[in-house]
Every structure is written in C-alpha cells, then in structure tokens.
Design a protein that fits this description.
Elements (H helix, E strand, L loop, with lengths): L1 H7 L4 H8 L7 H6 L28 E4 L18 E8 L2 E7 L5 E8 L3 E3 H5 L4 E4 L2 H8 L9 E5 L7 E7 L2 E6 L1 E3 L2 E3 L9 H8 L39 E9 L3 E8 L3 E8 L7 H12 L9 E5 L6 E5 L6 H6 L1 H4 L3 H20 L12 E4 L3 E4 L4 H12 L11 H6 L4 H16 L11 H9 L12 H10 L10 H15 L1
Parallel strand pairs: 6-7
Antiparallel strand pairs: 1-2, 1-5, 2-3, 3-4, 7-8, 8-9, 10-11, 12-13, 13-14, 14-16, 15-16, 17-18
Helix pairs in contact: 10-13, 10-16, 13-15
The structure holds adenine (ADE).
Adenine binds next to strand 12.
C-alpha cells in the first residue's frame, strides 16, 4: 500500500513516510526543510520548534531556561529565566543538566524540569527574542523611529517572578504583556493557549492582541553607541581642530556655543566651543578633562576629545539626535510622552548619577537642560564635572550665573557641593520632567527662592505627577543632606515606580 501511494502521489511522499514509518526515526534532512513551526514528527526530541538551524546535534546542545525554578531538594538545581544549560542525561520529564556561566564553564550540575528548558538556538535565533532585558533597555530599542506601530520583542524580565514579556510599540508608547506558562502551554490571555513561544508570536501576527490589530515586524535592534571616535583616538584625544567641521549651531550659552559637527567628514559629533577662554589654563584644563574622559557609562555623555592648541578650546562629545531634555519635554513630542517613558527617563538619569556617585564625582549642575536625549528616549547626563572647571570661576565672579533654583541650600550658602547636593538638584529635575518642562518655582525670583527654601517652602506636585513620585521629590529636598536618599536608592525606588505604572 505504501509503495502504491508513493507511486501514484509522489509529492506526498513525506506524508506517507510519516504514516507508514511512524516508529522509525525521522531523518534529519526532512526536518531541515521544514520551517513552519507546526509540523511535529512523533520521534522528534524537540517537538516544540522547527528551525533550519535547530538541527545541531543533541549531544552538547545548549538549552535556555524559560522560567525561574526553585530547587526543593539537594539533587535539583535552582535557576533563573535566561540561565543556560548543557544536558548530561535525558530521562522523562526530569533531566540532569550542567548550569553554565557566560563563557560556558560549569557552575553546578543537578536535576532540572525538562519543560522549563528550550533549545537555546531555537529561541535565541529569532529576530524578536532579546533575552534578558529590563524595561528601560526595552523602551530604548522599541521606541526608535525605525520601529513602526506593532513592532515587538520578547524579553526575559529582570524582575523576579515575571519571566517572559511580550513588549509591543503602540502609538509611540510600549505595551507589555506577561507571557504565562504552564504545562507546555504559553499564553497572554487564558482563553488562547499555545504550545510554544514561537506559536504564540505567530498566532498574534495574524490575530488581534488587546487593542492592537496584530503584531507587526520584530523590533529593530538599536546600534550600540561608542565611547570613542575610533580605536586610534582611545589614548590620543588632544586632536587637531582641522579634523572637525562645524555644522548647525545647536545652542548658545554663557559658557559655550554648541554645534553639531563632523570628525574627518564621517562621524557626527557635538562640538562645544568655549567662551571666556582667558580664565582657563591649558594644562589645568587638560588634566581635569582627562579625569572626565575616564568616566564611562551608558547614561553619561562620552567625552571623545579636546582641541586646546589654540583659542577657542573645543570639547568634542557624542552627538545626541533629540537634543536636551528640557526642550524635548516642552515640544509636542515631549507633551505626548506617557508616565512610563517619563519615569524611565528619570531612572536613566539616576542610573548615570549612581555611576558618578560610585566614582566620587559630583556634577554640580544637574538639570533637564544638561540631560541629552537620543533615539528611543535614551538619556545621558552631560556636562558632569565641567561645572567646576569652566563654570565655577564665573560663578565666583558673578553670582547672577548661579542656578539658584536647582542648587541645594548648603551649596548656595556655604559652597558645600556633594553627591547629596546633586540629589537636591535631581529632585528639581524630577519636577521638570513631570511638569513637562515647567520653570521651577514659578512666580518666585531666582534669589528669593533661597530664602523661601530656608523657611521650609517646597514646590507642590506637578498636576500629572503620581503621589509616589512626588514623595521621591520631597525626599530629595530634605533640609539635611544626610536625610536625602543616595542615587543608588533613588534608582531602585524609580525602578519600583516603573513596575507600578502598568
Ligand atoms: N546640545 C548640547 N550638547 C549636545 C549633544 N551632545 N548632542 C546634541 N545636542 C547637544
């Protein structure tokens, strides 16, 4: 019968093969060809996915944990979602596996629940799978202009017990759906249970998901930003002015004008052209800036180079497409930002400031005008340290230039700047964020603010500001610096707020 069917209908040979050779092992080439994600040969040890690249030999195959698991006896292994394993022995639902570190070394060996694991390459090769990622990073990938409505990714949340999350761009905001998992079923909505992550994604690519018509394209990954202009400038960062072309003027201030420019006619940079150069000693300037160059963090502007061979001096930094946070908040685009994005921006600033705090560096002029924004609402603190080198000589000679409304009372009165005076300024920056760029202490003159503060006055909450954020602001404005939280604590409190917002 098998022979007869094969002769009369050869194009269905694989079907006849499966019907008649049910017990025989399905041969590898047949599996290679299938990419549908639906065909599940009975003997396939990996029935949940079908990928052309998932045919690597079972021996030595790496698996990834889709969910966290808490060991209940000493034979079992505890693990987090995203942990990787090499399987030692397969036996029914319980396998023996070695947990691996990032470089493949064995951390521990024990018994694991098979259904919690997925062949690493089957999931991780998907363009929409972003692995372990917090919400802030997720937003900065998803909200870039390259991604249209419906763009999506699946990530493993960094928050305990959350597991996998499907994040989707909808009207320049992100919607997050927790993916539930039980007994080989995956779902965001209990009424529609699917047998794998891939099937879940494929299902919502052709069916509505909450208010969304359907999932669109996988999220385009944001390119990482460099901390240097090129490998040749890593240690050689006093560069000739001729390497730079000044293009559009981005801003003009008391201390400097800022231009967008190009290095060697190829890389966009921001060029700060310093004013009042008479007060700057070239050697002091170079040594002070050298310290700043060592400070590198994803939420601090990278200092690329300086040009001090002639006046005016140039400071070359990375270029941020959306300009400063204050102007962004006041723009129509900024006015449409939701609480999640606002809080995420505050979190990013707290993250950059935590790094400065850990490196005993004080900003002295933290304000929305000194935070720069790029694609995906990636925020970076700018001008750190420069306050002391460039601005202080001017503040000392002309107190009209002191940013009274942002500066902590002990810094105004006694010149005591510290990470805790930066925290005071951060409170004002929070007020700027949640008021969409309103001027602090409206109706009160700059210098009168100091007297009001000493008498105990504090700004009320902006109208759209959640109470838990206002409480953070108030804590930043404690009279005694030691009663204010540090940036590390602010960062974790803001993280909690982000988790509360959805
Ligand atoms: N304005 C001031 N500095 C800037 C920078 N680095 N990128 C964009 N705009 C800026």
């Amino acid at each position: 019968m098998e022979e007869c069917l094969n002769r009369s209908c050869p194009c269905l040979r694989s079907l006849w093969d499966r019907m008649f050779k049910k017990d025989k092992k399905v041969e590898e080439p047949e599996r290679k060809g299938s990419n549908s994600g639906h065909f599940k040969p009975d003997s396939d040890p990996e029935p949940r996915y079908e990928y052309s690249r998932s045919v690597a030999s079972e021996e030595g195959a790496v698996y990834i944990a889709l969910w966290a698991f808490q060991a209940r006896d000493c034979d079992e292994l505890s693990f987090d979602a995203g942990d990787r394993f090499r399987v030692v022995k397969r036996a029914g639902d319980w396998w023996t596996a070695a947990k691996l570190d990032a470089s493949g070394r064995v951390l521990a060996t024990g018994v694991v629940l098979r259904s919690y694991l997925e062949r690493a390459e089957s999931v991780t090769l998907q363009p929409w799978f972003f692995g372990k990622m917090n919400r802030s990073e997720c937003l900065s990938h998803l909200l870039t202009d390259q991604n249209k409505d419906g763009a999506f990714l699946v990530r493993v949340s960094e928050t305990d017990n959350v597991g996998h999350v499907l994040s989707v761009k909808v009207k320049n905001k992100a919607k997050h759906f927790k993916i539930y998992h039980s007994e080989n079923e995956f779902y965001v909505d209990e009424s529609c249970r699917l047998s794998s992550l891939l099937e879940l994604v494929q299902y919502y690519q052709s069916h509505p998901l909450a208010a969304l018509d359907r999932l669109g394209k996988p999220c385009v990954r944001r390119k990482p930003k460099h901390h240097d202009l090129s490998h040749t400038t890593v240690d050689m960062w006093e560069l000739p002015k001729e390497d730079f072309i000044l293009e559009d003027k981005l801003g003009s201030g008391y201390f400097a004008d800022v231009y967008r420019g190009k290095w060697k006619n190829q890389t966009y940079v921001a060029i700060k052209v310093l004013k009042n150069n008479e007060s700057l000693n070239q050697h002091t300037f170079q040594t002070e800036v050298e310290v700043l160059k060592q400070l590198r963090h994803n939420h601090l502007i990278s200092l690329f180079a300086i040009c001090t061979s002639s006046i005016p001096y140039y400071i070359i930094t990375e270029y941020m497409e959306k300009g400063n946070l204050l102007d962004l908040l006041r723009s129509p685009e900024g006015n449409a930002l939701d609480l999640e994005i606002l809080t995420d921006m505050a979190f990013q600033v707290a993250d950059g400031m935590t790094y400065l705090e850990d490196h005993n560096s004080i900003h002295r002029d933290l304000a929305a005008r000194n935070v720069l924004v790029s694609e995906g609402y990636l925020c970076k603190v700018a001008d750190f340290g420069l306050a002391r080198i460039i601005k202080e000589p001017i503040y000392l000679s002309n107190d009209k230039k002191i940013p009274f409304k942002w500066t902590a009372p002990e810094a105004i009165e006694h010149g005591i700047f510290s990470n805790k005076s930066d925290v005071w300024s951060f409170g004002i920056l929070l007020h700027e964020i949640y008021s969409y760029g309103a001027n602090p202490y409206p109706g009160i003159a700059k210098k009168a603010v100091f007297e009001e503060i000493k008498r105990g006055y504090r700004m009320p909450a902006p109208s759209k500001c959640p109470h838990f954020i206002y409480k953070i602001m108030q804590s930043c404005w404690s009279k005694q610096p030691e009663d204010r939280p540090d940036f590390k604590r602010l960062k974790s409190e803001l993280q909690e707020c982000i988790d509360r917002i959805i």
